[in-house]
């Protein structure tokens, strides 16, 4: 008697895959829209007339288009462009210095032949848990390093980041084979030459990821300017926009005490100016992100798959 075996039912993967691709694309599209929508909403408010905004509230489509908020900010004269130039200089120079310090420190920690790597790893990790505080940092920066009212006061205090050092150390350990470095040594290459010509070119994803975080940190920094900068020619963009907002609020509060709040409220675009400040502070760095995206995504996923 023959025994017939039932053939297992075949699953048509070609029919399932497009369906789930559509579902995942819809979910990701909705998530992306929820991330972009607030910024689009801020842009729309910044171009809305202040009086219409006070009467009808916020709207995604401006009921009455107005550039008053941007005119109010740009009426500060050349200070805005000077502050933008300071921020651009600090961001570019600070990012390069940070990448040099972080990558060299992390590369040394990733080398097993370095005798004191455990000590310096613990030294970097310890600074993540404990810090001297704001007052000792201020004393060191102003009294010992004499950074007050200098461009270096906006760069050096945040040039080193222990978390980024540990991330790059792990990246070097997992992505740079020891055999490659040993082969370079056999060919007569020194440590510094090996680091520049071999390690760095194959570590671009990790460097771009850390570089993006450093760029965001320098671009958004305003606290160091509040502590160390009094010279108007050295005020960065974020600190300058904050000073405009504080001055505007100061004028409104004083006018309310003098009984002229309605005249001041009618001439100062308060809400739209705040939104315009967000646009001016966020849009340049948002436009720069696509240039880092390829390396950024690769840097985040490195180590998750092994060939």
UniProtKB/TrEMBL annotation:
Q: Which residues cross the membrane?
A: 20-45, 52-73, 85-107, 119-139, 151-172, 195-219, 273-292
Statement: the UniProt record of this protein carries the keyword Membrane: yes
| Pfam family membership, one | BPD_transp_1
PROSITE patterns per the UniProt record, alphabetical: ABC_TM1
Topology versus the membrane = Multi-pass membrane protein
Q: What InterPro entries does the entry give? A: MetI-like, MetI-like_sf
Instruction: Specify the superkingdom.
Output: Bacteria
Q: Where in the cell is it found?
A: Cell membrane
Q: Where is the ABC transmembrane type-1 domain?
A: 84-289
Alphabetized, the UniProt keywords read:
Cell membrane, Membrane, Transmembrane, Transmembrane helix, Transport
Q: What does the sequence similarity comment in the record state about its family?
A: Belongs to the binding-protein-dependent transport system permease family.
Q: What is this protein called?
A: L-arabinose transport system permease protein AraQ
Q: Which organism is it from?
A: Paenibacillus pseudetheri
């Amino acid at each position: 008697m023959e025994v017939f075996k039932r053939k297992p039912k075949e699953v048509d993967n070609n029919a399932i895959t497009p369906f789930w691709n559509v579902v995942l694309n819809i979910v990701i599209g909705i998530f992306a829209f929820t991330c972009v929508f607030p910024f689009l909403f801020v842009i729309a408010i910044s171009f809305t007339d202040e009086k219409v905004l006070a009467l009808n509230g916020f709207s995604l489509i401006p009921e009455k288009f107005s550039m008053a908020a941007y005119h109010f900010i740009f009426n500060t004269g050349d200070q805005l462009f000077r502050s933008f130039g300071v921020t651009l200089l600090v961001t570019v120079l600070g990012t390069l210095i940070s990448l040099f310090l972080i990558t060299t420190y992390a590369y040394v920690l990733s080398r097993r032949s370095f005798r004191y790597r455990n000590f310096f790893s613990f030294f970097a990790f310890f600074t993540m848990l404990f810090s001297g505080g704001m007052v000792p940092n201020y004393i060191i920066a102003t009294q010992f390093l004499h950074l007050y009212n200098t461009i270096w006061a906006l760069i050096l205090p945040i040039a080193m980041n222990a978390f980024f050092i540990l991330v790059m150390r792990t990246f070097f350990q997992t992505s740079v084979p020891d055999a490659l470095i040993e082969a370079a040594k056999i060919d007569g290459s020194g440590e510094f030459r090996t680091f520049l010509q071999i390690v760095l070119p194959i570590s671009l994803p990790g460097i771009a990821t850390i570089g993006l975080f450093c760029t965001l940190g320098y671009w958004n920094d305003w606290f160091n300017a509040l502590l160390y900068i009094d010279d108007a020619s050295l005020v960065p963009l974020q600190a300058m926009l904050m000073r405009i907002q504080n001055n505007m609020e100061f004028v409104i509060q004083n006018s309310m005490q003098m009984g002229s709040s309605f005249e001041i409220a009618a001439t100062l675009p308060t809400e739209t100016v705040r939104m315009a400040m967000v646009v001016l502070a966020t849009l340049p760095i948002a436009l720069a992100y696509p240039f880092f995206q390829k390396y950024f995504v690769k840097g985040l996923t490195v180590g998750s798959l092994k060939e």
